[in-house]
């Protein structure tokens, strides 16, 4: 299996609920390395650009509104099979469907406030990492 990088976002609900450390511990405990990390307040434009693929979906406006409602933590996770492993740790999009012990089962409150984002393919990971971090800001360890 290849070493991959993937973009993870701890969303405003989980940041506001004080779950940053607990969520990052899930990544580290699973063997993923934090290769980059920062807390930022997304602008409307940044949030719209990040979720551009969803712009025709009925939930787009509320998703953007939620993502700018408070600071987020963005991090690059690195490790074997990092993209799929992160998706597994996150659990299903709707926390009601998320397997027990996943981040969304434990920390999300609704599909619209579901604690974390994670890239869902190698192409998305590449685009999303570059959306938030320059090459110099990502550290292989
Ligand atoms: N979302 C929502 N309502 C829906 C479906 C999705 O608010 O009915 C939001 C949710 O926050 C989700 C994001 O849109 O995380 C992106 O949706 P996607 O299907 O890509 O899910 P993910 O990859 O985040 O699991």
Automatic annotation (TrEMBL):
Family that this chain belongs to: Belongs to the NDK family.
Enzyme Commission number(s) from the entry: 2.7.4.6
Name used for this protein in its record: Nucleoside diphosphate kinase
GO molecular function: nucleoside diphosphate kinase activity
Active site residues per record: 117
UniProt cross-references to SUPFAM superfamilies, sorted A to Z: Nucleoside diphosphate kinase, NDK
Cofactor: Mg(2+)
Subunit and interaction comment: Homotetramer.
Function (record text): Major role in the synthesis of nucleoside triphosphates other than ATP. The ATP gamma phosphate is transferred to the NDP beta phosphate via a ping-pong mechanism, using a phosphorylated active-site intermediate.
Keyword ATP-binding: yes
Organism of derivation: Gilvimarinus japonicus
Subcellular location(s) per record: Cytoplasm
Catalytic activity reported: a ribonucleoside 5'-diphosphate + ATP = a ribonucleoside 5'-triphosphate + ADP; a 2'-deoxyribonucleoside 5'-diphosphate + ATP = a 2'-deoxyribonucleoside 5'-triphosphate + ADP
Positions with a binding annotation for ATP: 11, 59, 87, 93, 104, 114
Superkingdom in the source lineage: Bacteria
Predominant location category: cytoplasm
Key words, A-Z: ATP-binding, Cytoplasm, Kinase, Magnesium, Metal-binding, Nucleotide metabolism, Nucleotide-binding, Phosphoprotein, Transferase
